[in-house]
Design goal:
heterodimer; A: about 110 residues; mainly beta; 6-stranded mixed sheet; 4-stranded antiparallel sheet; B: about 120 residues; about 50% strand; globular
């Protein structure tokens, strides 16, 4: 079945450092890809998405590009802030058979220190 | 702006007892989802409703689990004869028809179940 693998955490960075969280997927067909974020004490929320190959999703300074050739959707941010401290989940959705199941990775906890 | 709300936020129960969780989705959303998240793992899909119809169930949803959405608004997830392996965070999410197709789900904060 479909699966998503993301880099193990936790990740600790200093403020203004560059962030990369790796994510790769295996799927039937061509899924849509997502990054969800969970801030402390809050529910999961969509950070960005890409629905086809070579699409770039972006939001709040974060970016991720859908790479079909490497089946990857790595999350990047050029300069992290303390407020970016959260758990980040990569996810895929293949709705070709009328299914709406999101498949999530295990999550990567990011801590940004001043 | 009211988001997805879940109740109770935390439930502690003894093995063998029944528990029920409630989810109130965003009012205009016709799709509702239940996910389960255990420690150190990402959320895992349990079931999905469109209006009152339960359209999809995961094999994770054993016979002890039942979910309903009787009027197409709030939903309940009941676990009968709880086991220690049921200890997890139960997440509810909702979406409208359009955003559900594109994967944008709106999640509640979850109901944490601890089975002693």
């Amino acid at each position: 079945g479909d699966s998503v693998t993301q880099m193990e955490g936790p990740v600790t960075l200093s403020e203004e450092a560059f962030l990369t969280i790796n994510c790769t997927y295996t799927a039937t067909g061509y899924p849509s890809l997502f990054w969800y974020v969970q801030y402390p004490g809050e529910g999961l929320q969509l950070l960005l998405k890409a629905t086809k190959a070579d699409d770039k999703g972006s939001n709040k300074g974060f970016e991720a590009t859908y790479r079909k050739e490497t089946t990857s959707f790595h999350l990047e941010k050029g300069s992290v802030q303390v407020s970016d401290s959260a758990v980040y989940f990569c996810a895929s959705l293949y709705s070709g058979a009328g299914s709406y199941q999101l498949t999530f990775g295990k999550g990567t906890k990011l801590s940004v220190i001043p | 702006d009211t988001g997805v709300s879940q109740d109770p936020r935390h439930k502690i129960t003894k093995r063998g007892q029944n528990v029920t969780f409630r989810c109130d989705p965003i009012s205009e959303h016709n799709r509702l989802y239940w996910y389960r998240q255990t420690l150190g793992q990402g959320p895992e899909f349990l079931t999905y409703f469109q209006n009152e119809a339960q359209l999809e169930k995961s094999r994770l949803l054993s016979d002890r689990f039942s979910a309903e959405r009787p009027k197409g608004s709030f939903s309940t997830l009941e676990i009968q004869r709880t086991e220690q392996g049921d200890s997890a965070m139960y997440l509810c999410a909702s979406s409208s028809t359009g955003t559900g197709v594109t994967g944008e789900l709106f999640f509640g904060e979850g109901s944490r179940l601890t089975v002693l």
